[in-house]
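Can't attach files on this board, so I'm pasting raw text. These are the components:
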Amino acid sequence: DAGITQSPRYKITETGRQVTLMCHQTWSHSYMFWYRQDLGHGLRLIYYSAAADITDKGEVPDGYVVSRSKTENFPLTLESATRSQTSVYFCATWETSGRRNEQFFGPGTRLTVL
Amino acid sequence: AQKITQTQPGMFVQEKEAVTLDCTYDTSDPSYGLFWYKQPSSGEMIFLIYQGSYDQQNATEGRYSLNFQKARKSANLVISASQLGDSAMYFCAMRNINQFYFGTGTSLTVIP
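---
Top answer:
Structure tokens for the assembled complex are below.
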């Protein structure tokens, strides 16, 4: 089906381990984003990408790494997971030419760091 | 600095009544966009409505309307004829250049 997929949907890991969250889109939207959602904070932008090989930091980038070698994929890596990175992670794309200018969100990945 | 402020952590509304969810924003850029998203308990983010900073008229999408007051920097969401399925978290967001900023959300409960 067309849209945004995220994998895994649920992940439990331990402090200090490396974790990669995957995001894949089928639309070829230029922009892709990673957010984390925590109670009391809403969604906060971690990183975004305007196109393949172009990435930039958002509001809370520390402890995260991204890459975008292909337009359709935008993986997020936690190089050494910490408990404070326990959160729900959303990937999103942005259709800049659309009338509604909306972002499209993936289903989210719930990450628990023990 | 907080760019989007939602001051109502929780709201209750009677079924079939209208409800207004407040949102104020902060930007010095003349070009921006304002959005509302709904997040039901299942967790997905559902787009509701969009207002561009240059749009002259308030946006409407079915039962949703956005009360855009540019001078006050407010973008309140109005839901008319509330339904039980409207119970959810509602997030206001702003696109500023190529970044998006979200508020902390308002939890809406519709009472039968």
